[in-house]
Amino acid sequence: MDKGISLEILSADFYLAKASLFSHKKCNFFCRLLPQWILLLANLGLEILSDAFDQVSSPRKPHYALIGMLLAIVAVLACISELLHNGIRERVVLRRRGMLWCFNYPPPNNLLFGTFPEIFGLGLAIVQCICSAVQC
Question: What are phi and psi of 67, to 5 degrees?
């Protein structure tokens, strides 16, 4: 009877070890992508709320415009924090390229840091913030 229990325990330990091995791979994959998706969805939500408050605002209700402007500022800060998070994770370095200073990836590839959607999103968030400040 003890041997049967020990076999069950050994088989349970084997399955737990196997499950922890696969969950570690899954965690490694999700741990890399989860912060990016959280920041992306938070930034999208802030932009939508900022647009909604800008649409609701009127001369009689200026506090909605103020809330929209504050949300636009928070969206710009969230976009900048996303770029900072990616830059720290990728270990980018500041280098001079002609007359401009640019962030580049480390020496093996020396590409410019940032993808088109990231830079475009930052630009649009800044434009949204300026438009909200002008409307306020």
Answer: -65, -40
Give dist(CA 65, CA 32) in Å, integer: 36
- Is the distance from CB of 125 to CB of 47 less than 8 angstroms? yes
Task: Tell me the CB-side half-sphere exposure of residue 62, using CA atoms within 13 A.
Answer: 5
Identify which of 50, 32, 31, 54 has the alpha carbon closest to the alpha carbon of residue 42.
Answer: 50
Q: How far is CA 40 from CA 9, 45, 76, 103, 123, in A?
A: 44, 9, 12, 21, 15
Structure tokens at 67: 């809330």
Residue 128 three-state SS:
helix
Hey, where are the domains in the chain? 35-135
Pairing of strands 93-97, 100-104: antiparallel
Pairwise CA distance, residues 106 & 94, whole Å? 10
Q: 51-105: per-residue pLDDT in tens? A: 888 888 888 888 888 898 898 899 899 888 888 888 888 888 888 888 888 888 8
Rounded-to-integer distance, Cα 43 and Cα 73, Å: 11
Residues contacting residue 114 through CB under 8 Å, at least 6 positions apart: 83, 86, 103
Token reading at 29: 């994959």
